[in-house]
Amino acid sequence: MEEFENCNDIQLDSKFRHTRTIIHIDLDCFYAQVEMLKNPELASKPVGIKQQHYVITSNYVAREYGIKKCMLITEALALCPKLVIVNGEDLHDYRLMSNKITEVIKQFSAKVEKLGLDENFVDVTEVVEKKLKMESKFEIVGHVYKNEIENSCLCGCRERLTIGSQIANEIRSKIKQELGMTCCAGIAHNKLLAKLVGPTHKPNQQTVLFPSSALTLVLNLSCARAIPGIGRKSSDILNALGIDSVSDIQNASLSLLEKHLGDQLAQWIKGASFGVDDSEVKQTGKQQVIGLEEASKGLYSMKDINSKLHSLIERGLKLIQEDGRFPTTLRVSVRKYSKSEEYTKQRESKQCAINPSMFRLNSCKEQILKLALSLFEKLVDHTKPFHLTLIGLAFTKFQEELPVKSSLLQFLTKTSPHKDASTESENISRFGVKIANKEQTSVETAISNDYLANIDQSVLDELPEDIRNEIFQANAHVSSQPGPSNVHRSGSKLNCPAGVDPKVFYELPEDIQKELIENNEQGYKKPKTSLNNHSKPKQNSILSYLKK
Ligand code: DCP
Ligand code: MG
Ligand code: MG
Questions:
Q1: Cα of 28 to ligand 1 centre, how many Å?
Q2: 56 Cβ below 6 A of ligand 1
Q3: Fewest CB atoms less than 10 Å from the CB: which of 19, 140, 163, 354?
Q4: Which residue minimizes the CA distance to atom 27 of ligand 1?
C-alpha cells in the first residue's frame, strides 16, 4: 500500500478527491433484446442467440433455466429443450442499434466512450456541476451499493453521485422511450468502479457506488482477471507470479509488477486493485469500419456469392448513407470450410481502394458488386469447386466530406488520371476506363468541342440530377465564344449557350435551360444546387475541373 501511495500522484488525487461523475451503461441481453424487438412474440419465450456452436447470449427468460453465455448449444438445449435459437452471426442489426444507443446517450453529454457494441461510458461531471448550481436538494435514484451512502468524504461526491444517479435514470428512460431497449447503469467517480457496480443489480436497474465502498467492491471480485482491463495475457503473467486474487495484487510489490508487466500497466493494475482509476472517458469518434457478414453452412457457387454480395452491398450502402461519410476502401472476406474447428474461424480478405465519387452514381451498387467480385476472385479460385461458410464486405477509411470535384471528374473522364497508380487504385482507374470505352463511339458523335467532351456520357447520365445540373451550369460558363443560336427540333425557343452541347441542353428541363442562359449572360453565379456536405465556396470550382 505504501509503495502504491508513493508511485503516482495522480492516483492519490483520485483516492482522496472524487471530482468526476461517470456513468456506465450496459444493455440487457443485448443481441437477444434486439431480436425480441424485431419479433415481439419471442419476448415471453426462452431465447438463445447462436454463433457457430455456441449460445453467445440469451434473454432473461432463458437465464432462468441456467443458460449462460458461451454455452454449447447442445448443453443449452439439454437444460431448456424449448429454447428458441436465433442465429446471431449477422451483426448488422446489433451494430445499427448500438450506434443509435450511443447517439441517444450523447444527448446528455458529449463525453461518451463506446465500449464494444452494448456498453458506453458517459462523463457527466459538467452536467452535474450545472445541476448543482441550480438545485440544492437531491434524492438518489435506484440502488446504492451495499446501501452505504457516503458519510465520510467531504469533497462533495455524495451530492455529485446522487445527481449522477438521476442523470443515469434519465438516460435509461430515454433509451427505453426512443428505442424500446432496457439497460443497466453503474454510477461512480471513475470508469472502473462504474463498470463494476452496474451489474450488481440486473436487468433494467441501476446502482450507485460511493467512494467509501470502493474497496469492498473490488475485493468482492472473484479473481484478479475480473478487473476489466486485465486481459488474458496479463492475468497469465500474474498467475505465474502467484497473484490470483485482487488482494494478492494489493499485497504484491509494485516493482515486481513493473518488472513483469511494464511500468504503466503495473501502476494501473495496482491502482485498480484499490478501486483507483484515473483514465479519462475518451470521446468515441465514428466507427472505423462499416462491415457486414453473412454466414452459411455452405456457399458453393458463384450464384450464391452474387446473391450474398448483392444483399451485403445493399445493406452496406444503407449504413453508409446513415453514417454520412464516404469510404475509400472496400474489403471482401471469406471463411473457407475446413473440418478443423480452429481453422474455420479464420477469415481471409482482400481489399482495394475505391473512389468515393462512386457513391454519387446511381449505378454505384453494380459498380461495387463488380469490384467485390474481382476481390472475391483473388481470394477464391471459382473455376474449381469451393466451399465457403461466410462472406463479408467492409467499407473502411472514411472521409468526412465528399471528395473534391477533381476526383469526381477523374472518375467521369475517359482517361485514367494516374498512370503510376498502385495496383489498388488501378482497379478503379481500369474500372473507370472500362465504362468509358464501352460508350465511346456514341459519345464521340454526341459531344461537341466543349468541356463536357471529357466526360463519359453514360456516366454523366447516371449522376443525380443536381450534380448534372451543376456540371452543365459550370460548362455553360466556361466558354466565352458565342454559342449556336437556334430553335431546336424539340420545340424549345431558347438559345443553347456557348460551349454547351446542344444535344444535352435540349434534354434539360426548361427552367434549367433558362438558368443556364442566365448564368451565361451574367457571368458565372453560384449554382443554386449544391452538393451535400460541401461548405467550401464553389465559385468556378467545376470549371477548372472541366477544362481539357
Ligand atoms: N457477445 C458475444 N460473445 C460473447 C459475449 C457476448 O458476441 N462471448 C455479444 C452478445 C451480447 C453482447 O455481446 O448480447 C453484449 O455482451 P454482454 O456481456 O453485455 O451480454 P448481454 O448484453 O447479452 O447480457 P447482459 O444482460 O448480461 O449484459
Ligand atoms: Mg449487456
Ligand atoms: Mg456488455
A1: 8
A2: yes
A3: 19
A4: 29
* 117 vs 281: CA distance, rounded Å: 16
Q: What angle do CA 544, 498, 405 make, to 5 degrees?
A: 20
Name the residue at shortest CA distance from atom 3 of ligand 1.
56
Cell 437477444 identifies what position?
32
Q: Let me know: does 170 contact 227? Beta carbons within 8 Å.
A: no
Closest protein CA for atom 12 of ligand 1 = 30
Please tell me if the CB atom of residue 71 comes closer than 6 angstroms to any atom of ligand 1: no
Q: Which ligand is nearest to the CA of 56?
A: 1
The closest ligand to the CA of 58 turns out to be 1
Ligand 1: residue of 28, 30, 86 to mutate (most ligand atoms within 8 A of CB) is 30
Phi, psi of 310 (to 5 degrees): -60, -50
Give yes or no for a contact between 187 and 209, defined as CB atoms under 8 angstroms apart.
yes
Residue 444 parent element (H or E): helix 423-446
CB 31 less than 6 A from any atom of ligand 1: yes
Nearest ligand for residue 31 CA: 1
Radius of gyration of the chain (CA): 30
Catalytic positions, written as ranges: 119
DSSP labels, 336-348 = E--SSHHHHT--E
Is the CB of 94 inside a 6 Å radius of any atom of ligand 1? no
Pocket test for ligand 1, best of 118, 183, 195 (most atoms within 8 A of CB): 118
Strand partners, 115: 119
| 8-state DSSP, 105 | H
Q: What is the pLDDT along the chain (548 residues), one digit of tens a residue?
A: 444 444 444 455 466 789 999 999 999 999 999 999 999 999 999 999 999 899 999 999 999 999 999 999 999 999 999 999 999 988 888 988 998 999 999 999 999 999 999 999 999 999 999 999 998 889 999 999 999 998 889 899 999 999 999 999 999 999 999 999 999 999 999 999 999 999 999 999 999 999 999 999 999 999 999 999 999 999 999 999 999 999 999 999 999 999 999 999 999 999 999 999 999 999 887 778 888 888 888 999 999 999 999 999 999 998 888 778 899 999 999 999 877 655 456 789 999 999 888 887 888 999 999 999 999 999 999 999 999 999 999 999 998 776 555 445 555 544 433 333 333 322 222 222 222 222 222 222 222 334 455 556 666 666 666 666 656 655 554 433 333 333 444 455 677 766 666 666 676 667 667 766 765 655 433 333 322 333 333 333 333 332 32
DSSP 252: S
Regarding pTM above 0.70, the answer is no
Say which residue the cell 478527491 belongs to.
17
